[in-house]
Amino acid sequence: MLEFNILGISVLEWIGYAASVLVLVSLTMTSIIKLRWYNLAGAILFSTYGFLIGSLPVGIMNFLIVCANIYNLKKMYGQKEDFKVIEIKDNDELLIHLLDYYKKDIGNFYPNFEKKEKQLGIFVLRNMAVAGIFIGTQEENELKIDLDYALPQYRDFKVGDYLYKSLKQSLSDHNIKSVYCYSTQMLKYMEKMGFEADKKDNKSIMKKNLN
Question: Does the model's pTM come out above 0.85?
Fold first, then answer.
């Protein structure tokens, strides 16, 4: 039994508290994969806690939850997914609905985003469901990214990875050679997608060549 204390609370109790927090956090995840990972960590701690206090029902039940999470994570990572990009037509009703529905969340990443005429748009489909929205303004042979948005349940980088791998072909009819953005809030994401720091009109941008 773990008898020593930290801040007047036994290590055993800390394990129970940590397990509770992880399970609670898992329930706030919009991504199913993240939910599974957090829930797995919480279940491992709860199972450990149960066996340490001599409560077999708690220990065994959470051990089974651990096994269920591992099984489902293995299934998710092994599942072959189907991706497709579709160019958005002007005044697309689905686009208008999605932009309105996710307006607040979009504002967290692109606070100055505004849908305008003559923008190029692409839906990224994942298993036949809209998973991402990409909108930009063409400037000769460049495209300024106005919006690169993955729906909350699809934020595991797979949507962006597929989008930028297929972007050259998707934009081939428009003779676009590179894409760039001014947003610094998406810096880590842009770096992961292969963007590099650059300058345009004496302003810092993130740019990706489509070759």
Answer: no
Total tally of structural domains belonging to the chain: 2
Same domain, residue pair 28 and 109: no
Neighbours of 190 (CB within 10 A): 24
Q: Which residues form the domain of 47?
A: 5-78
In this structure, what is the dihedral angle of CA atoms 204, 206, 210, 211, given to the nearest 10 degrees?
Answer: 80
- Whether 176 and 133 map to the same domain: the answer is yes
pLDDT tops 90 at residue 144: yes
Q: Write down which residue in 34, 49, 78 finishes a domain.
A: 78
E-strand stretches of 75-170: 83-87, 120-126, 129-139, 142-150
Element (H, E) at 47: helix 32-52
Which pLDDT band, with edges at 50, 70 and 90, does 66 fall under?
very high
Co-location of 53 and 104 in the same domain: no
Q: With residue 38 as reference, give the H or E element that holds it.
A: helix 32-52
pLDDT band with cut points at 50, 70 and 90 for residue 171: confident
